[in-house]
Amino acid sequence: MKLVLSCIRCGSTDFKNTEHANYLLQEDCEDAKAICDKCGLEDYVKCLVITFK
Ligand SMILES: [Zn+2]
Predict the structure, then answer these.
(1) How far is the CA of 28 from the centre of ligand 1 (A)?
(2) What is the tally of structural domains in the chain?
(3) What averages of pLDDT result for each successive group of 10 residues across the chain (53 residues)?
(4) What's the domain range around 42?
(5) Which of 7, 20, 25, 34 could make an SS bond with 15 (beta carbons 3.0 to 4.6 A apart)?
(6) CA of 52 to the centre of ligand 1 (A)
(7) Predicted TM-score (pTM) of this structure
């Protein structure tokens, strides 16, 4: 089980900028954006839901 980002719109945990998932616990992810691979939602990493997978 690991921490992953979850899309707030569709719940998918697949993102195009998946490298940002590695920065979840780092302060420099504040302005990083991730794009949902499923619905295309683009949002700041800090706004996404962090969940267990
Ligand atoms: Zn989505």
Answers:
(1) 23
(2) 1
(3) 88 77 56 88 85 83
(4) 3-52
(5) 34
(6) 16
(7) 0.68
